[in-house]
Design a protein that fits this description.
Blueprint lengths: L11 H12 L5 E8 L9 E2 L3 H9 L5 H9 L5 H7 L7 E4 L5 E2 L6 E6 H6 L1 H24 L4 E4 L8 H13 L4 E2 L2 H7 L9 H6 L3 H11 L4 E4 L5 H17 L4 E6 L4 H14 L6 E5 L4 H9 L6 E4 L1 H4 L9 E8 L2 E2 L14 E7 L5 E8 L7 E2 L2 E5 L2 E2 L6 H14 L2 H4 L9 E3 L1 H14 L1
Parallel strand pairs: 6-7, 6-11, 8-9, 9-10, 10-11, 15-19
Antiparallel strand pairs: 1-5, 1-12, 2-4, 3-5, 3-17, 12-13, 14-15, 14-16, 17-18
Helix pairs in contact: 2-6, 6-7, 6-13, 10-11, 11-12
Length: 445
């Protein structure tokens, strides 16, 4: 069993609560919502991502014999409780936002309806899976908004926090609108287009830049992108100009050059002039080096003639906003609505639906959060995606999710498309939901 599907990849308190539920025969149906309490200051919307991995996890949830043996030997759990876990499976229902859906604070991304022990155990891993991809997709789409019509490539694997993060960051960035990734396994596993150039070490390992450029181009005749800034960027560009005719005689065209350091805008302008003057006007310039949406905007403001960008560290760790206040809370148990009323952490109880309202031209105007049995005008966002512990349909292709993101972004009010804007989108709470909250709060006092 891999780490990704290991049921013990959870918090201890999930299992100690399960032992309590077992001892007290608490097996009634529970409803939990996964949602973001508040948007980070630097975000005015988020992109839902990670559902596919979450459903895989739920479908394959079970305790392996070696896991049960380990639990039996750790001295924390009752033997009969451990024995009961041998048959543990997720048999519940899941409602969720389709991946690539824009959402806002207090809106459920995912709703679990299942016997209480099942619904409880999955909390930690679901947050873990949904949080990271949603975080990265929401960062990546800001880069897409800052650099429309430019090739953006995920370069962040080496700085991601672990192997799973590197792989899922590539997926999240791609579904948000990136053109591809440098992470090879993401190409194999998800079919994401791969992009890559060379490292400075290849240049340094050769006795001359000319030899390095030639040997790499010969080895990659259909995709020769040459790194120019190991020593002197402008001199390297001139060396490439001299080398180009010999390569062209062998049927090799220099597809692009990469600049990874220094004043990217000024160097790009100088390199562009050298390339154009030397007959390589079709050779693209690719920039990299500690970039994100803010730096991209600076480069465009400075008139940088750069055709594509590698976005690495600042994407894969979402530097400006590295966490979301994503939580998983009980909203109903045994047919009764439940509410957390802690100050600053209050929840909206019951089974809910989000209704999205739009103008005649399709522009989003407002969302309403309502009880499921009190429908409202607008498009209901939560969809049933799993029943009796099984997916209702096959996994959605990434290309379909990318198309959804594009359509959602196009429907956003113009102020919200500006990643620098602090405009707030209206999310209203239906009167019936407010009445339920008042009733529950009154019963507690």
């Amino acid at each position: 069993m891999t780490t990704a599907t290991n049921v013990l990849l959870t918090d201890l308190y999930q299992l100690t609560m399960l032992q309590t539920y077992y001892a007290e025969c608490m097996q009634e149906i529970a409803v939990f919502d996964l949602f973001v309490r508040r948007l980070p200051q630097a975000r005015n919307f988020l992109i839902a991502a990670g559902l596919d991995q979450a459903l895989d996890y739920l479908e394959n949830l079970s305790f392996a014999p070696d896991e049960l043996d380990w639990l039996a030997g750790c001295g924390i759990f009752d033997k009969q409780f451990i024995k009961s876990l041998a048959e543990f499976r997720f048999s519940g229902t899941v409602h969720a936002l389709p991946e690539g859906t824009i959402f806002f604070a207090d809106e459920p991304i995912l709703r679990i309806t299942a016997p209480l022990p099942q619904a409880q155990l999955v909390e930690s891993r679901l947050i873990n899976l949904i949080h990271y991809q949603t975080l990265i997709a929401s960062k990546a789409v800001r880069c897409v908004l800052a650099a429309p019509d430019k090739l953006l490539v995920d370069f962040g694997m080496r700085r991601a926090h672990g192997s799973e993060a590197a792989l899922l960051a590539a997926r999240a960035a791609y579904l948000a609108g990136f053109g591809g990734t440098a992470t090879v396994l993401a190409g194999m596993q998800f079919g994401i287009p791969l992009f890559g150039t060379m490292a400075h070490s290849l240049i340094q390992a050769h006795d001359s830049e000319e030899d390095a450029f030639k040997n790499f181009a010969v080895a990659q005749p259909r995709d020769a992108v040459i790194l120019l800034d190991t020593y002197d960027t402008e001199i390297a560009a001139r060396k490439l100009i001299k080398l180009a005719p010999n390569l062209q005689a062998r049927g090799i065209v220099i597809k692009g050059v990469r600049i990874d350091s220094g004043d990217l805008a000024e160097l790009a302008r100088r390199v562009r002039r050298i390339l154009d003057k030397g007959g390589l006007s079709q050779t693209a310039i690719f920039g990299s080096g500690d970039l994100d949406e803010y730096r991209l905007q600076e480069l465009f403001t400075d008139g940088a003639p750069i055709d594509g960008f590698g976005i690495g560290t600042r994407l894969d760790v979402s530097t400006d906003s590295p966490i979301l206040e994503l939580v998983y809370k009980l909203q109903e148990y045994a047919g009764k609505p439940r509410r957390k009323s802690s100050v600053g952490k209050e929840t909206w109880p019951g089974r809910k639906q989000i209704y999205r309202q739009t103008a005649d031209d399709g522009t989003l105007t407002a969302d309403w959060l309502s009880l499921e049995d009190h429908p409202m005008t607008g498009h209901p966002l939560l969809q049933e995606v799993m029943s009796n512990g099984k997916r209702i349909s096959t996994p959605e292709p990434l290309e379909a999710i990318r198309a959804r993101v594009r359509a959602q972004i196009a429907a956003l009010p113009i102020p919200l498309r500006d990643y620098r804007s602090l405009s707030k989108y209206p999310v209203y709470i239906a009167p019936e939901l407010r009445e339920l909250v008042a009733k529950l709060d009154c019963a507690l006092h």
